[in-house]
Each structure stands twice: as C-alpha cells, then as structure tokens.
Amino acid sequence: MNLSENTKRAGDLRQALIDAGLELLQGGGADALTLRRCAARAGVSHAAPAHHFEGVEGLLTAIAASGYEMFAATMLDHLARAPANKRDRLYSICEGYLKFAATNQALYGLMFNSGQINFCDPDLAAKSQASFQILEQCCAPLQDTNTGPLTLEITVWSLLHGYCSFTKKGREGSSKHPASRVPFQQLFDYVIPPQQTDVCSARDQT
Fold it and tell me: What is the pTM for the complete model shown?
C-alpha cells in the first residue's frame, strides 16, 4: 500500500495518518505503530496526530474502522461474482472473509483480536455492524425457522473466525493444527450440506 500523495495534497491529514498507520501496521504489527512513527511516515510534524486522535488507541481505532470498510468491500466483491444460488452466495462471502484475513493478517488481528482499540467508538461500531449485516443478508434465505436467524449467523461467523485463527498458527509454524489440513469448503459443506439446500429450494418452488 502506498501512501497517496493526492490525499496529502487535498489536506485530509487525518486520512493520511490512517494510511500511514496502515502501512506501519502491515509492516510490523500494532507494536510497531506509534504516533511519532505515523507522523514521520505521513510526512507531518510529530504533534499532528494529537489534533485528530486521542492517543495511539484513537489512531488504532480509526485504522480498525477503515479495515472494516475494506473487509466489507472484499466480501461484497466476492458476492457480486457469485451465482444466484443462495448457498453459493453465502459461501462467496466466506471466501471474501478468508481472503481478507489471509492478505491483511495484522489488520485482521487488530480488528478482531485486539484489546488496543475502542469498540465503543461510533464509527468503528457502525462499520463493523455493516460488515456483519452482509452475513445476515446471506444467511437469511438459509435460516432454520425453528432456531431463528442468529443461530446460523453466529455458527458461520464462528466457523470463519476459528478457521482463520487455527490456520494462522499453522502458517506461523508454531502449531501443526489439524485445521490447516482441512479445506474450508469441507467444513462449510458439513455445516450446510448441499443436499439440504437443494431440498429447501425444491420446497420453496412448490
């Protein structure tokens, strides 16, 4: 990711600092990110971040909010190319989730596993909820009326989050977790069998 010179010329210093923070985060994780380093990367005075963020937590929270926008965009991009079948549409956003997590590991960790951000921040809360709503919309046609919508939504979200966590450990070499040897689609098929959705589709048409 290259810091946009156009952003700086437009005077959007806050966004320039967020972009710089994203670069530092992706390069060295949250521990590598300080306000002073962020200001240096953005090419502004070391005092500039204090005018836009309440300390490092404020900057990290803004970076996480930006991450949720990118996260939602990735899922929607996969959804736009999915077949019309409702099961395939749900699987497509799962692919988007997994792609985002794999290609933005430090950012994903900040967004989902960090105690360094303020989850009560209104902007962060709105953007994280918007990403969850994509899941809600894709789960809705497949939900079991006996258990309610949240059961499937939380099941799929938990499956994705756990799979990302386990496979990350396998990639880092700290653990030969069995999940790293099982394709996600195999787990998805176990939770939502193809034949089950075929039966539901046939029932819907009668």
Answer: 0.83
CA 50, CA 53: separation in Å to the nearest integer?
5
- Report the sign of the C-alpha dihedral through residues 88, 90, 96, 102, in that order: negative
Q: What is the pLDDT of residues 6-65, one digit of tens each?
A: 444 434 888 999 999 999 998 888 888 888 898 899 888 888 888 888 888 999 999 999
Who's near 76: CB < 8 A, 6+ residues apart? 93, 96, 134
Given a contact cutoff of 8 angstroms between Cβ atoms, the answer to whether 39 and 48 are in contact is yes
**What is the maximal distance between C-alpha atoms in the chain?**
67
| Phi, psi for 183 (deg, rounded to 5) | -60, 145
Only one residue has tokens 């290609």, namely 103
Q: What angle do CA 52, 57, 58 make, to 5 degrees?
A: 25
- Look up residue 119 and give its two tokens: 């989850």
Dihedral pair phi/psi, residue 59, rounded to 5°: -65, -45
CB-CB contact of 191 with 159 (8 Å): yes
Distance separating alpha carbons of residues 109 and 14, to the nearest angstrom: 22
C-alpha closest to that of 185 among 166, 159, 161: 159
Helix (H, G, I), strand (E, B) or coil at 139: helix
Q: Which of 67, 53, 151 is nearest to 112 (CA)?
A: 67
Digit-coded pLDDT (tens) for 68-90: 999 999 999 999 999 999 999 99
Helix (H) or strand (E) holding 103: helix 86-103
